Amino acid sequence: MKNGTDFKLRADLRRLIFTAFGGSLRARGFFFGNKAVRRPAGERRDIARCRAKVGVRLLTKDEISTRLRAASAADIENLRRNAYETMRAHVGEKVYYRGIVELSNLCVRNCEYCGIRLGNDAVTRYSLEPDEIVQAALWCAAQGYGSTVLQSGERSDAPFVDMITSVILEIKEQSRSKKLPEGLGITLSLGEQPLEVYEQWRAAGAHRYLLRIETSNRELFEKIHPAEQTFENRLSALADLRRAGFQVGTGVMIGLPWQTVEMLADDVLFFKSRDVDMVGMGPFIPHEDTPFSRACLGDAILPDEKRFQLALNMIAVTRLVCPDINIASTTALQAMVQNGREQGLLYGANVTMPNLTPSSVRKNYRLYDGKPCLDETKSECRTCLERRVRSVGRAVGFDEWGDAPHARKRSESLEAK
Ligand code: 5AD
Ligand code: FES
């Protein structure tokens, strides 16, 4: 098996060398059939751009699927090691924190899988006061976390939109310091909104937005959402986020009912084709008060160990295909396995999200069963997470926003145009 894998790696390397050298020589017009023909400069630039793109995405859909299926100890370790080395080469080994504030569990949507869906009457609903959100974010800045994520159930009513705007302005204003001259980095995870709302929040100072596609397969998307939540709307929301000037993150759940490895391979290609800056994904975990409870799904989902390993393999393959983006090691991994988040970091993730939600309401923001850290305070989460990060030989990037190199490169190339 090892020889087979080595061979595959050598073949990948050959293809890389071909693309890097043969490709670029051709793009410059040195070879054309047997004759050297010089192409016009504009055309040469276009070709070079295409070649460069192909050069970065070395893996075909079949190759991605094969890697996602890695199941023997040797294949898994090989995949993990490649992903880790790719991470080291492109984004480094630092882990960036995003202190997450789950600011409200009110939600107007009804995703079949989600514990805070509108139709779940068993949830005690809450919304933090604007000042509680600001204070949590300022605590995060004082700890040196560098960035915060503001997440909630979905709402688009004017009072909510305006409250978020003023919270962003307040956090930016109050978190400026010598260490953070631009203030705390703010990532939003507040669902689908009209373009004007995205623009308003971007203008207020948030600069990243996470909106998971959940699955890039239209049919599967339709099976896990009610009819009014359409795949088209999700796609256009992702496009609007880019238009509004955000660094864009997306992601999927892994191990959904009806989901195949080929669909997951398409998800990875979707991340690549949408040129995303960040990916956050984790295993699907049934919630008992949803239509997708364990009791309802029965054996329609993979056993826990397989779903967990598939989630790790997805992180690794995403790192191989999108080497310079930020990838989060999510709490859902830790919900399945005690050291799940550490394992995510070992498979190529470079971001993690300490929980800043006040302990009094944490248990009410339960998207899936078994969510960890429900009784811990934010200080306890800080100590615990730092120990976890250190245990895998990594250091935290304190007092930095920790933007993905991918985002930086895109903004530099836009400025150059
Ligand atoms: N299992 C795993 N992840 C879930 N999410 C929501 N419900 C579940 C679940 N049951 C994820 C979705 C959503 C994110 C905020 O949480 O991917 O986008
Ligand atoms: Fe709230 Fe899906 S249930 S966004």
Task: Tell me what you see in this structure.
The chain has 417 residues and is of the alpha/beta class. The protein has a single domain (5-416), classed as Aldolase class I (TIM Barrel), CATH 3.20.20.70. The protein contains 17 helices and 10 strands. Strands 2, 3, 4, 5, 6, 7, 8 and 9 form an 8-stranded parallel sheet that branches. α5 links the parallel β2 and β3 (147-152). FE2/S2 (inorganic) cluster (FES) is lined by residues 107, 109-111, 114, 116-117, 153-154, 191. The site of 5'-deoxyadenosine has 12 residues, from loops.
Task: Give the secondary structure arrangement, pairings included.
Blueprint (H helix, E strand, L loop, with lengths): L1 H26 L13 H16 L4 H8 L4 H18 L5 E2 L1 E6 L25 H13 L4 E6 L5 H18 L9 E5 L5 H10 L3 E3 L7 H7 L6 H13 L3 E4 L2 E2 L6 H13 L4 E6 L10 H4 L6 H18 L4 E4 L1 H6 L3 H7 L4 E2 L6 H4 L15 H14 L13 H12 L1
Parallel strand pairs: 1-10, 2-3, 3-4, 4-5, 5-6, 6-8, 7-8, 8-9
Helix pairs in contact: 1-2, 3-10, 4-12, 5-6, 6-7, 10-12
Helical content stands at: 40-55%
Structural class: alpha/beta
Let me know the CATH homologous superfamily. Aldolase class I
Low-confidence stretches: 1-40, 46-55
Mind telling me the CATH class? Alpha Beta
**Nearest-integer average pLDDT:** 88
What labels describe this entry?
alpha/beta, 10 strands, disordered N terminus, 417 residues, globular, binds FE2/S2 (inorganic) cluster, single chain, 8-stranded parallel beta sheet, TIM Barrel, binds 5'-deoxyadenosine, 10% strand
